[in-house]
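[User] I have long wanted to understand how a fold can be written as tokens. Those tokens are not coordinates but codes from a learned vocabulary of shapes. Could you go through the record with me and say what the backbone is doing? Thank you; the sequence and its tokens follow:
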Amino acid sequence: MRLEESRVFQSASSGGRLQERIMRTMKIRHIAGSGGAFIALSALTLITLHDPSDSARAASFDASAESQTPAENAAATPSMLRPVSPQRAVARDDTRLIEHMMSGVLRSRQVEVALDVLPDPAAASSSETPIRLELFDDLTHNIRIDSPGAVHPGAPDVRTLLGHVDGREHDSWVVISRLGDDLHADIVVAGSATVQLRSLGGGVHEVREVDESNLPPCGVGLAGHTNPTMEELRRPGDPAHREDAAPATQRGEFFTPVDVLMVYTPAALATAGSPEFMELSAVNWFETTNFAYENSGVEHRLRMVGLFETDYVEIGASADLGRLRNPSDGYMDEVHELRDLYGADLVHLISMSTGACGVAYVMPGITPGFESSAFGLTRFTCGALTFAHEIGHNMGCGHDKENANFAAFCYSYGYRTPNNQYRTIMAYSPGTRLSLFSSPDVMAFGFVFGVDGDGCPEDAADNVRTMNETSPTVANFRDEVTPTEPSAFSVLSPVIEDGSVTTLTPTLTWSISENAGSYSVVIAADEDLENVVYSGNTVSTQFNIPNGLLQYNTRYYWQVTAINNFGMAVADDGVASLHTRHIADFNLDSAINSADLAILLGSWGACSGACLADITGTGFIGSDDLSILLGSWGPYVD
């Protein structure tokens, strides 16, 4: 998205929370994702404050933890989960079992969710009363909601709540995404495995405890992966060194938006369970990544502008990435059109690719030429921090120095503590992965999580600085697209007002709606469109009703809604109606008369194939057909 034309994008931390954190000393929290479990750090006090124009961030953390579930609150805390009855339990099919194994699920149980205890995300603020989550027999958390998350154009109906575990304000993190009655939640607490809540449909959810220590590595640098070089991508006018780049712009609690188009394969969709569950997962990934940006001092935020299925079968992570990048090889080519249509700076594939948890092209330096390589993929079962890692590559971030093959600058590396105890999002194991990007301005557990890059020392590690310098270029890979509402239009035919009747397979037609990307068609047996006979979508201004849907001599109602590519919809100017012909009205003149009698008598006798006058369907036009025709004589349309 072009910065000078872009609308500001509010971060996940609403209500001025970030602005307050910058302007005055207060407690802040940093969570972390682990190589095994997600781990959180206890943020004690912001000890070094700078003017908002200063990009440096310095924080220290106290590793001590408060009480996980205060007993005195238990009695007054509403419970959100209850065991599911055996009759409602969802059977685990092979897809679900495989997903459990690939995701590192340690244990799970099915529950029902009391959705009424959750606040409205549109009006959520810091909650006075905690919500009780009885996750397992030996694990219960009380959670508090802090604020709503961002609304992403690519999944506008998904709402997110952000919070923490009660009594663990500074070393826990809760993300709850909701779409209708379905939830996708992550509960992260220091020293514990990640707990997930995932919808199985039908009001049933699954609580999972997850260990991610055995997930495959990133594919960058593995056999089969090649990365573009600056020589290949450089364009006239590109800065030769990082000093020529302008810093990203921060405006209070508003941040530079980097727009991302997300596409997913049928295999990933099957693993997710439904398009709605895919939406919930994708929004969770974005909110988790933006939270890591907030923790680390990164001055941009990701915004999902589109989420679509692409008809592609995976063959391996590196090969899949190459096919995603190629605009004309016959694989996923439509993704490039969608990218331009939605103004996406980056493109990311959610797949079930083998060989790596994810892979992406690494921006080798500041050049607009990298837009042709701004692609990455994440295996669905690897989750949010893998997504954050791969997007980091697109922004120029490399792995830790020992495992990095590509990086934008001499300091564009992840960081691992000297004792191999902790590591940042971009660094490889050993060490517990924290929800932080490397920076010499962030401290935790007595460690500085980066090394200043000035002078390019051998151990330089500052991926926060890297992204703050590359984000203005990345955010300008595509201009922002401002959605325009579809224009008014009208239905053309058939309509009962003209007294005509139709066959059982009529063609519905309507005028063009400007800015419409598709049309939704609904056919129902009642004017309120509640008793739906058919609903579907088309990109054309006509729709042929399939055989077998409509009955003879019946009135139906239909309406068309124009939808633009951003989900904005405009319905036609009313509900139209049509009337199918009587079975004996052969000439469609709305009456049974001498013309129909002549057709029947002229066809008298045996017939084969589709015989118009064979009312009884016996293959013989005779007295039974004549009796029905004569018994229906006269007009029949009201």
